[in-house]
Specification:
Shape: elongated
CATH topology: Arc Repressor Mutant, subunit A
Radius of gyration: 25 Å
CATH superfamily: Winged helix-like DNA-binding domain superfamily/Winged helix DNA-binding domain
CATH class: Mainly Alpha
Number of strands: 0
Largest sheet: none
Number of domains: 1
Distance between the termini: 85 Å
């Protein structure tokens, strides 16, 4: 379980977009896998087989959620806390960690905004670095579909991130407020030095 937890959690999380729900789906998938271990033929890697079970469980939960949402509208109060997923922190300076966390949150929010089919392929292929064939097996889609969805997901992410960057560029190195006042005051003092009293 420890060997496959991260990849399987990310698979469920990509489909469900909810940490707690993804954990529940992962636990249920492990139970299903344990009960079905005798049916594992070894045609695929164990990780691929497990990921397919997790994906099916997550998709089943997603369908149930959408049916419940049609009956009773769900009100989301707050976004769930995002778990630290960056394993290699080479620079432990507080500002570097904060910057990485901010970039990670931005990227995760944009991945979450992808349509489900693209989001799941992107997580399995780009984040978990599974082969095209493994992703195709897990999601039960043709390899060509995996490639095209990954290409499209990357394009959508680039476009969304570029828009965020364009908006942020307007505020980069802001000069309003205190900084502006300080420069103006400094220039005025130098242009009109205080007169010495005799």
């Amino acid at each position: 379980m420890r060997r496959h937890n991260r990849m399987l959690f990310r698979t469920a999380r990509a489909i469900l977009r909810d940490d707690a729900e993804a954990e529940d789906a992962l636990q249920e998938a492990y139970i299903q896998a344990y009960r079905s271990l005798g049916t594992f033929r070894g045609d695929a890697q164990l990780s691929t087989w497990l990921a397919r079970i997790v994906a099916n469980e997550a998709l089943q939960r997603l369908r149930k959620q959408s049916r419940r949402a049609e009956i009773v509208p769900l009100q989301s109060t707050a976004a769930p806390e995002v778990e630290q997923v960056m394993d290699s922190d080479t620079d432990n300076a507080p500002h570097s960690s904060a910057e990485r966390a901010e970039v990670r949150r931005l990227l995760e929010s944009q991945i979450d905004a992808l349509p489900e089919a693209y989001r799941t392929v992107f997580m399995l292929r780009a984040v978990e670095e599974l082969s095209v064939e493994e992703v195709a097996d897990i999601l039960d889609i043709p390899a060509a579909t995996v490639r095209s969805r990954l290409f499209r997901a990357r394009g959508m992410l680039r476009e969304a991130l570029a828009q965020k960057i364009d908006v942020a560029c307007e505020d980069a190195f802001s000069f309003a407020g205190e900084r502006c006042d300080r420069v103006v005051a400094g220039v005025l003092v130098r242009l009109n030095p205080p007169k010495e009293t005799p």
